[in-house]
């Protein structure tokens, strides 16, 4: 998406609840828009299979290790204040068996920890809005 100075206002006016393309934080935050509300959800270029496989030449195992390393640090940080870890996946890349088996192990590592919520962007936005913006 190419963004202009009007993009966020137009998205909010159209009823879009959140964007997830700003790579500047691991916590959601509200964006300033003229009308309505718009939330920024965390996005990480490094935890994107397109960048990992096609731009950096990582193997499935290396990408899975990157995911685990990212998670382990964010999990520690999240003990103080919650964190969001987005993982951007493309089925035509991660879906190959030589990659998906390693991703499954990384996901199992994440899911094995207490107090981890595997959620969609909409679920995160709904929770944030209910707990921080509506109250």
UniProtKB/TrEMBL annotation:
InterPro entries: Glyco_hydro/deAcase_b/a-brl (IPR011330). One of its GO terms (biological process) is carbohydrate metabolic process. It comes from the Bacteria. PANTHER family: POLYSACCHARIDE DEACETYLASE (PTHR43123:SF4), POLYSACCHARIDE DEACETYLASE-RELATED (PTHR43123). This is Uncharacterized protein. It comes from Capsulimonas corticalis.
